[in-house]
Amino acid sequence: QGQLVESGGGLVQTGDSLRLSCAVGGIDIRSYAMGWFRQGPGKEREFVAAVRPTGLYTYYGDSVKGRFAVSRDNVKKAAYLQMDNLKPEDTAVYYCAATSRIVNTESWYFAPSSYNYWGQGTQVTVNP
After folding, report:
1. Could you say which of 15, 92, 106, 113 would form a disulfide bridge with 40 (CB–CB 3.0 to 4.6 Å)?
2. Alpha carbons within 13 A on the beta-carbon side of 115
3. Residues 6 or more apart whose Cβ sits within 8 Å of residue 55
4. Whole-angstrom Cα distance, residue 73 to residue 92?
5. What is residue 103's three-state secondary structure?
6. Cα–Cα distance for residue pair 23/10, rounded to 1 Å
7. Whole-number pLDDT of residue 44
8. What 8-state DSSP symbol labels residue 56?
């Protein structure tokens, strides 16, 4: 069973940066694409970013393109989400997820149902 543990969330001001980490245990991270999702108050879970196993292919939600960067370190068994120029609308619980099904269709990675394992989430709050 996979265990995903997020860290790095916190309370920041508009324009600040944060780096989220996702520690992966119980599965071979090299066989999984890693995704990041978020869920704000009263909102549905939203795709943020994903990175395929080798790190060569990355995908982003429209609202974070140009501000966020997803990466991974298979040796350290971790995935990361660098968030720059944060805005109040980025306030949410951020979740790390892993999927063992690797496809060439970008939209596959946008759906929460595509992922096998999930972390518990880390809160990010951005003050105006």
Report:
1. 92
2. 26
3. 71, 72, 74
4. 25
5. coil
6. 17
7. 96
8. S
